[in-house]
Amino acid sequence: MTPWWSGRQRPRPYARAYNDAMADPIDPRVDIGHVHLKVADLDRAIAFYQGVLGFELTQRMGADAAFLSAGGYHHHIGLNTWESRNGAPAASGTTGLYHFAIRYPDRASLGDALRRLADARIPLEGASDHGVSEALYLRDPDGNGLELYRDRPREEWPHNADGSIDMGTKRLDLDALLEEGRRPRPAAAASAARGNAAPSPAALSAAMRTRLGDLRTRLLALHQALLEDARTQYEMDRGRVAGPGVLLQLVINDPWFAWLHQISEIIVRIDEMTANDSTNTDAEARGLIDQIDKLLLPSENGDTFSRRYYEAIQRQPAVVLAHGDVKRALKSAS
Asked: What is the pLDDT of residue 9?
């Protein structure tokens, strides 16, 4: 294989290249877009990043991978079990990720993060005031180091006499931070002040939540069977898929796999509907169940999804079995 630097000056050791790099700085608009973590148990990791910290689940690939974000971005955090299912954290004394940091917009939102951790009984490993920022340190369920922090405004950053930034480590007042996190937010305060508003419909019942959980498990199995079939057909037509990372990019971006997005989006919808803070009702759940039932109708002459679904059922016994399991779950959930 031809090295990428072929025809150019051969790369030099990092230390020798350092001085030249200082003369050619990176574009200041560059930032860190997302972090992708290897995890042992996908459901456990999602329960932490979505259930405790509050990130939104934007896409899920069965039991293999998931993507979460804040504010509608495609993903800030990726999770996968491709090489790590049921694995152990990295041993001490090895190289790799020390921690990654999640930045909160202000002190109140960082206080809210501390409240969430306290409510879930997640222990901290440290809490520091660095002058430029305030930070909480902990580990996720897979042992990955995690920093939750908020920056102070730039004009408040401390500087040394020579003008360089003076970052220190002082004790952070957790009680004061937690108190700020427990204060009502403006929107919540306005909602509480309305007092006389009509009561909201009854939340999702425990029985419906259980039925949706069972349906979700069966939909994941169906999605996995369909994905395996779609991959097989893709490789027969276009050549071998090199590995899980390549498959992920194909599933996200290639039109060949686009029809499967409807199932993964429904799985995400079930996750949102059964979340602890969900306000969905049994009636809305029945509406979603009806939507799923109507979607999973294979047809040789239907729309793109119906045709691709029909073809997969004709080819793969695993898809037939998974389809039957979902239909039975739909019948018991309705």
From this structure: 55
pLDDT computed for residue 2 by the predictor: 57
| pLDDT value, residue 194 | 44
pLDDT value at residue 126 = 94
Average of pLDDT values for 283-297? Answer: 92
Question: What is the CB neighbour count within 10 angstroms for residue 323?
Answer: 21
In the chain, what are the domains? 31-88 (3.10.180.10), 94-188 (3.30.720.110), 206-333 (no CATH)
166 touches 177 (CB < 8 A): no
Distances from the Cα of 111 to the Cαs of 69, 148, 161, 275, in angstroms? 19, 10, 32, 22
Integer CA distances (angstroms), 259 to 59, 127, 128, 251, 322, in order: 14, 46, 48, 10, 17
For residue range 217-248, list pLDDT tens digits in order: 999 999 999 999 999 999 999 999 988 878 88
- Between the alpha carbon of residue 86 and those of residues 43, 83, 131, 236, the distances in Å are 12, 9, 40, 32
**Closest C-alpha to 97, from 37, 40, 54:** 37
Q: Please enumerate, as own/partner, the contacts of 125-131 that have beta carbons within 8 Å and a separation of 24 or more.
A: 127/171, 127/172, 127/174, 128/169, 128/170, 128/171, 128/172, 129/168, 129/169, 129/170, 129/171, 129/172, 129/173, 130/167, 130/168, 130/169, 130/170, 131/157, 131/158, 131/166, 131/167, 131/168, 131/170
Residue 212 φ then ψ, to 5°: -65, -35
Q: Who has greater pLDDT, 276 or 274?
A: 274
